[in-house]
Write a structure and sequence with these properties.
The complex is a heterodimer of chains A (about 450) and B (about 270). With about 450 residues, chain A is of the alpha/beta class. In chain A, about 55% of the residues lie in helices and about 10% in strands. Chain A is built from 16 helices and ten strands. In chain A, the strands form two sheets. Chain A has a six-stranded parallel beta sheet with strand order 7-6-5-8-9-10. A four-stranded antiparallel beta sheet of chain A has the order 2-3-1-4, with helices on both faces. With about 270 residues, chain B is an all-alpha fold. Chain B has two domains: about 110 residues; about 150 residues, no CATH class. The chains are: A alpha/beta (about 450), B mainly alpha (about 270). Chains A and B meet through helix 7 and helix 12 of A and helix 5 and helix 6 of B.
């Protein structure tokens, strides 16, 4: 059954931003998009995953190639344009499952290991199953993808280390302070990078933000913005820097200049004034705004742009290494999913075969009992019924086992057809998709 | 019997130590649990070994260096077991267990040299004096381990450029410093009690409370050091690296008096550990 799985999509790896923007329309009304792809010829199941980095249409159909070309045409009609046709990728079967697993585990993300993608995938699946567009194939595959994402998260270090400047600042701060709650942050300069880092810290419960800037008006503007977001913030002129230093715990500086804004001497005084409580300084300015030798003062921790950069590089190297382990997990899972789905795709033939056997047994029992039944007592009648069932079971045992085994090893296609032909089973049943299972949560394992 | 028990306990400590070290390198959830139970099992066996000694002497088995080291190691283990559990900091085990092993190994190796306890020493306060002294030392040992972690973590956080992966696994500096503060405060309280009760026992036994013999002098130096440390923290706000280093020196003094004086028993503690 895994052969029915189809994926057509674009992502930040393949498509430029304008193309992604054009296709993101598909994500605006997910339910409507799913409805329209379900009406495409050859597409039996459908799901749409649309984020700012990717638009992917998942489907299932038999044969898969037909579903794939339908989906491809559909995407092209959405204004992919001549420039975008090469940016589209099409995967089928195991290839499509592998892609989905990698997406769910955040290995395909722009920032590898970022956790949002799994939530987005869950939403996409929820919408698809609530409009009844998911059948056995998508249910099992996507359900497995959730389990794989969880496995990758717990068994590997993908997603364990910071990969953005703001995260790095938070992570370092957490190793200096017991908690960021109740800490005061001083923002020197109102540059974008420092603001972003400050926002990260604000997200971790810092008590207050002091913003110092050459232009106090600009500082006030930024402070008002932070206040709207729920973080207490005050604006100050640059001249108040020395008196603020002893009051804060974290300094984010992004205001470059010809001389150091914060000197070692000023810091040494601040450290004494604050009774040696730790002070964490991040100098994002180039040229640097905090005297580099200040890092040698007791309980002063100073990081500059290069330090943070090295940390980030180290983290992404670590993530890349862990991603290798994650890929190995995904390979195992894809093979397992294929095995399970193949076993299931033999079920229609097996069910028919079993039904036929039961039918024959019952019919023959009825006929025999109609002729001689009057002469038999209950126990003897039961023996006749049992004999009929036993003969059918014995005869079908070997073909059933072999068919199931062939299915699990991926070679059931022809054999199933032959069985259907030999026993005169209704062959068209094998080609139609199975009725969708009741919508709801997919079978998430583990 | 007690020797065999101690040997088995030491094996369990080795297992626990390896579990904690493994956890330091690979943060796998089962490692600290295995280490914890291995440590707990070791401590139980060790407790039996100590109980054997207790029956032999009809007194706390701390009359020679073997028993002294053994008792100290056991108390460090117990203190860590309780503390590590409460603080949820299994990572500390990787630093504490080696200390336990460093102390317990010589206890296994040193020959047994029983010396009958002077009957006069069976005074009521003596067991309290011994327990307080040992427990205080055990807490200083923990503070030593915490100080070591602090120095490691601070070195990482102060390093320019790339950091070793360990920084992400160790607790934050503030947590470590807070832990040091509490351990030192409790250790100091017990040390003070040990010194006072010891003086009372001495006064009753020998007539003089304090004789400036080397062991007493070292205990006094240690007491002054920790008193100064606590004072500097409270009054001046000393914290962090400086405090961690001084705490470690304090514990080394404790161990120095323990081992050095036991090897040349010239004082009225007579190479014993009451």
């Amino acid at each position: 059954m895994i052969d029915r799985l189809v994926l057509v999509g674009i992502s930040h790896h393949t498509a430029s931003l304008p193309v992604r923007e054009r296709l993101s329309r598909l994500g605006e009304n997910l339910a409507a998009t799913i409805e329209s792809i379900r009406r495409l010829p050859g597409v039996a199941e459908g799901m749409v995953l649309s984020t700012c980095n990717r638009v992917e249409l998942y489907g299932a159909g038999n044969p898969a190639a037909r579903a794939a070309s339908s989906l491809q045409t559909f995407v092209a009609d959405q204004g992919l344009g001549a420039d975008g046709s090469g940016e589209l990728y099409v995967h089928q079967g195991e290839e499509a499952a592998r892609h989905l697993f990698r997406v769910a585990a955040s290995l395909d993300s722009m920032v590898v290991g970022e956790p949002q993608i799994l939530g987005q995938l869950k939403d996409a699946f929820h919408v698809a199953s609530s409009v009844g567009a998911t059948g056995d194939c998508l249910h099992r595959t996507v359900g497995r993808a959730f389990a794989v994402a969880k496995r990758v998260r717990t068994e590997t270090g993908v997603g364990r280390n910071a990969v953005s400047m703001g995260y790095a600042a938070v992570e370092l701060a957490r190793k200096i302070f017991a908690s960021l709650e109740g800490k005061r942050v001083l923002l020197v300069g109102a540059g974008e990078m420092a603001t972003l880092a400050a926002r990260h810290l604000a997200g971790h419960g810092v008590l207050a933000l002091e913003i110092v800037n050459r232009s106090e008006a600009h500082a006030e503007e930024l402070a008002a913005q932070f206040r709207r977001e729920g973080t207490g913030a005050r604006a100050h002129g640059l001249d108040r820097l020395p008196e603020l230093l002893p009051q804060v715990d974290i300094v984010l500086s992004a205001a470059g200049g010809k001389t150091f804004l914060i000197t070692r001497e000023a810091l040494a005084q601040a450290v004494k004034a604050r009774r040696f409580r730790p002070l964490f300084l991040i100098d994002l300015a180039v040229p640097r705004s905090i005297e580099p030798s200040s890092g040698g003062l007791p309980n002063v921790y100073l990081k500059d742009v290069d330090d943070i950069g090295a940390l980030l590089a180290q983290n992404s190297a670590h993530r890349a290494q862990e991603a290798g382990r994650a890929e190995a997990i995904i390979e195992v899972e894809v093979a397992e999913l294929a095995r399970v789905l193949r076993g299931r795709s033999a079920t229609p033939v097996l069910t028919e075969l079993r039904r036929l056997g039961d039918q024959v047994a019952q019919a023959e029992t009825r006929r025999t009992l109609a002729m001689v039944g009057g002469a038999l007592d209950d126990r003897q009648r039961a023996s006749v019924e049992a004999m009929a069932r036993a003969i059918v079971n014995k005869l079908l045992h070997e073909p059933t086992t072999r068919l199931r085994r062939a299915a699990e090893s991926g070679a059931e296609g022809e054999l199933a057809d032959v069985v259907a032909l030999l026993f005169g089973l209704p062959g068209e049943k094998l080609d139609s998709p199975e009725p969708p299972e009741p919508s709801g949560d997919p079978p998430v394992e583990g | 019997m007690s020797h065999a028990l101690l040997g088995t306990a030491t094996l369990a400590y080795c297992g626990a130590g390896m579990g904690y070290l493994w956890y330091l390198v690979h943060p796998d959830p089962p490692a600290p649990r295995i280490a914890f139970w291995s440590l707990a099992g070791g401590l139980l066996l060790h407790a039996l070994a100590i109980a054997c000694g207790l029956l032999d002497h009809a007194f706390l088995p701390a009359t020679n260096i073997r028993e002294g080291l053994s008792l100290l190691a056991w108390m460090i283990g117990i203190a860590y077991l309780i503390l590590g559990r409460r603080l949820r900091l299994p990572i500390l085990g990787a630093f504490i267990l080696p200390i336990v092993l460093v102390i317990v190994f010589p206890a296994l190796a040193v020959p047994i040299q029983d010396r009958p306890l002077t009957p006069a020493l069976h005074a009521g306060l003596l067991p309290l004096h011994v327990v307080a002294a040992f427990l205080g030392n055990a807490l200083f040992a923990l503070a030593f381990g915490v100080g070591l972690v602090y120095l490691l973590q601070e070195r990482e956080l102060k390093r320019r450029g790339q950091l070793f992966a360990i920084w992400n696994k160790l607790p934050s500096l503030e947590i470590l410093d807070g832990l040091n503060s509490r351990l030192v405060a409790w250790g100091f309280t017990l040390l003070t009690f040990a010194i006072v009760s010891g003086a009372l026992v001495a006064k009753r036994t020998w007539g003089s409370a304090w004789s400036w013999e080397p062991r007493e002098a070292l205990a006094f130096v240690t007491w002054v050091l920790f008193a100064g440390l606590i004072g500097a923290r409270q009054l001046v706000g000393w914290r962090g690296r400086r405090v961690a280093v001084l705490t470690m020196i304090g514990f080394l003094l404790v161990m120095g008096s323990f081992v050095g004086l036991a090897l040349c028993p010239v004082d009225r503690h007579g190479g014993t550990f009451q």
